[in-house]
């Protein structure tokens, strides 16, 4: 897409995908729109070790029974990833079952390259190891 007002390169990704589960089993449908912003390392072409990306956006999964799940990564808490780290470094993903209204979130922390996160569901928060 070019650069944003901060001079960072960004890319818009739109997905409309269908997974056919076979005769009589239905389909899973995924639609999503997200923005990937290259927030560091874009000035050192050929050296991926200092690259850092943020991702924000939304998705909807429709199950074969018609139930839907919404996924949101808002701009205030985008996922942050770096090729030099095996884990998501920060950000929050919120997942909502649209039939029950129940929401859970996964909080990846504030920037450390570690395998720790927190899941919050029905008012309870659990520390997890990824």
Model description:
This protein has strands at 2-3, 9-20, 27-40, 52-62, 68-73, 79-81, 90-97, 103-110, 116-121, 124-129. It is mainly beta. It has one domain. Strands 1, 2, 3, 4, 5, 6, 7, 8, 9 and 10 form a ten-stranded antiparallel β-sheet that branches. The two termini are 32 Å apart.
What keywords describe this structure?
single chain, 130 residues, mainly beta, ten-stranded antiparallel β-sheet, globular
Topology:
Elements lengths: L1 E2 L5 E12 L6 E14 L11 E11 L5 E6 L5 E3 L8 E8 L5 E8 L5 E6 L2 E6 L1
Antiparallel strand pairs: 1-2, 2-3, 3-4, 4-5, 4-6, 5-7, 7-8, 8-9, 9-10
Radius of gyration: 17 Å
So what's the overall shape?
A: globular
Major beta-sheet overview: 10 strands, antiparallel
Poorly predicted runs = none
- Per DSSP E runs of 2 or more residues, the count of β-strands stands at 10
Count of DSSP-assigned helices: 0
Helical percentage:
under 10%
Q: Would you tell me the overall average pLDDT?
A: 95
Distance between the termini: 32 Å
Class from secondary-structure proportions: mainly beta
In the residues, how many domains can be counted?
A: 1
Q: Helix-strand pattern, N to C?
A: EEEEEEEEEE
Per DSSP, what share of the residues sits in E-state strands of 2 or more residues? over 45%
